[in-house]
Each structure stands twice: as C-alpha cells, then as structure tokens.
Design a protein that fits this description.
Shape: globular
Number of strands: 0
Structural class: mainly alpha
Largest sheet: none
Oligomer: single chain
Order of helices and strands: HHH
Radius of gyration: 13 Å
Strand content: under 5%
Length: 63
C-alpha cells in the first residue's frame, strides 16, 4: 500500500520483521539495528550472521 515498487515492499517487510523480532526478544529496536548494521559488513560466515540474530545478540553490546 505504501511501497511504490515490489522491491520497496520487500525492503520494508525485512526491516519491520527485524524490528518486531527485536521487540519480541526484549531488545530496543534502534540499538539492535545499530549493532547489526555496524557488524553486518564483517559477518563473513554463517556463524557470524547467526550471532546477529535478535535471540543470539550479546545484550551487553546494547546501550
């Protein structure tokens, strides 16, 4: 409804999913996204990507 293209809708759904999953895991969405977006370029293995999932993230990294 609010996306102009299918790619925009897909991107929006991805971010909404990350935000809501962070909330479901008792994380502040802004802090979680900040950590993930900083670490994502350096995640060069499946293990490093899995460590960024909301239920695996180290809560001590969040402010």
């Amino acid at each position: 409804m609010f996306a102009d293209t299918p790619q925009g809708a897909y991107a929006s759904a991805t971010y909404y999913s990350l935000i809501e999953t962070a909330k479901a895991n008792d994380l502040e969405p802004y802090d979680y996204l900040r950590i993930v977006l900083k670490a994502l370029p350096y995640a060069d293995s499946v293990e490093k990507l899995e460590a960024l999932l909301p239920w695996n993230v180290d809560k001590s990294l969040l402010s």
